[in-house]
Amino acid sequence: MTKPDIDFPSQIGVWWASETWAMPDAQAVARDIEALGYGSLFIPEIGFKDALVESAAFLSATERLVVGTGIANIHVRVPSTAEVAGRTLNNLFPRRFILGLGVSHAPLVEGNMGGSYAKPLATMRTYLEKMAAVPEQIEPGSGRPVRLLAALGPKMIELSGTDADGAHPYLVLPDQTRVTRDILGPDKWIVSEQAVAIGGTDEDQLQWAHGHLMGYSGLPNYRNSWLRQGFDESDLVPGGSDKLARAIVGTGSVDDAAAAVTAHLDAGADHVVVQVLGDNPTIDPRPALRELASALQLG
């Protein structure tokens, strides 16, 4: 089976958390991202704004930009609602929406949402089965959008190939993108995320990288992923070691950052989404994205 269609205008997109931005302002950012030549905008869902509502707003504000959820938390909505929302967006914006799904993390699900986080692989498999059971006469004629899973471990990667259309690796080295491709084979989508630090001094960039990793370094899913990728316990300090930070985040010149992005394409990704870091997570990403677009020869 060949990959379902997605009309990416280019192989490089953007991963941006826009929760603190008013939506009209965020839509303006999306239009600028499209004008710079980026092919997509992927957005997270961390318990504040609804990623599917945001997706509809970004799709309606742009003309060709692909919008993806990176990821929509399966603990936020029931499977049938997720399925029908995806079909609706696919009907309104054909081949421009990607439904990325993930099990999230125990501290978020149990602490912030009051849910239960048990057997994530089985939970995801059951969720996908319930999505597939929604009858075709609901949003008839739409078909479903491309569906990706937030997959780090080998079993979740395998599930992303058997029960979905591919994977959305996050905070991984290009070598892990290559591992994901080896597991999935040639006919599944891989959209890898790559964080970059552009501008400032070397000390600034390292500080931004550590700040970015701070929240993730305490989560078992990412800690286990980094151990599988060749790091050790000494790298898993809060915010990550310097070694981990420099490996996971593209630092140095803008050309160095661009090389970190394209390394995932060389490793087998179909598309790479770049996340711009700075001195706080609410910065305007556009200045750095303009520099990076030039280095990547987008537009």
Shape: globular
CATH class of the domain at 12-195 and 282-296: Alpha Beta
Q: Could you give a short account of the major beta sheet?
A: 10 strands, parallel
Instruction: Give the name of the CATH architecture of the domain at 12-195 and 282-296.
Output: Alpha-Beta Barrel
CATH superfamily of the domain at 12-195 and 282-296: Luciferase-like domain
Strand tally: 10
Structure classification: alpha/beta
Give the averaged pLDDT, no decimals: 94
Instruction: Note the beta-strand portion.
Output: 5-15%
Helix content: 40-55%
CATH topology annotation of the domain at 12-195 and 282-296: TIM Barrel
Number of helices: 12
Radius of gyration, rounded? 18 Å
What's the assembly state of these chains?
single chain
Residue windows where pLDDT falls under 50 for at least 5 positions: none
Main location: secreted
Protein name: TIGR03620 family F420-dependent LLM class oxidoreductase
Subcellular location: Secreted
Domain Luciferase-like: 22-209
